[in-house]
Amino acid sequence: MSKIKGVLAGISALAFLAALPVSALTVSTAAAGNADASVGSGVSAVVQGSSSSSVSGSDQVNTGATSNTNTNTSGNVNVSGTTDLSVPLVITQDDVSGGSVQATGVSAGSVQTKDDLSGYIATQLKADANLSSVDTASDHVAVTYKEPAKFLGLFSVGVNTTATTDASGNVSITQPWWSFLAATDNTSLQASVQSNVNTVLGTSASANAQLTASQQARLVSAIETAMAASANASATANASGNVNAQ
Q: For 24-53, what is each residue's pLDDT tens digit?
């Protein structure tokens, strides 16, 4: 009889536990790893233990995201090209004969851009074999022309003579170091070039002047004209001297 009462008491206890709501079972985890389980408000149990988890090495997961965009704009960029008049434009007979610069047939009065200027200078070099080279920029124009002369008064030679003007209209004449051995009239040549330069620049010349492409072309023409006239006069004088000597 006592056994039957014990079984019935056990069955009653089980029925009571089964009737408890699920929400009555809570589990909290302490920092030390202890798990405190409470069943309802009257039943509790403490479970001793520890639990740790770590992610290391290649198993680590980084959920942060960074973005670093570095745009380098400090590289060398050529912004001048062929349109920057401050960059000297130097063209020689070799450039024209080699085809690196093309003659366009444009006239000095039609030049508006640096490309026009290049084509004009090439045209002049192609037309006159005595015109050796042209060096021009916004602050100067230099024309090198082969002037005839007598070396030691006996031998006919060509002296590469350079007439240069700055943007202010100041003209200078330079020749190779050995030119003192050749009879040349640089005084007359400089006066002739200066006169033609003054005609082009007029009263617009100043210390801070910047030559336009059009002005550069007209100065090349003016200087070349003066130098060609001087060369022709020298050639005529030399020929006359040869005839008289015979």
A: 333 343 444 444 434 344 433 333 444 444
pTM of the model: 0.64
For the chain, which residues make up each domain, given as ranges? 1-42, 89-245
**Separation of alpha carbons 7 and 98, rounded Å:** 121
CA–CA separation, 123 vs 217, rounded Å? Answer: 11
For 152, phi then psi, to 5°, come to: 60, 20
Question: Strands (DSSP E) along the chain, which ranges?
Answer: 25-29, 35-39, 43-47, 89-92, 131-137, 140-151, 155-166, 171-174
* CB contact burial 47-79 (16+ within 10 A = b; e otherwise): eeeeeeeeeeeeeeeeeeeeeeeeeeeeeeeee
Residue 193 in tokens: 């070039």
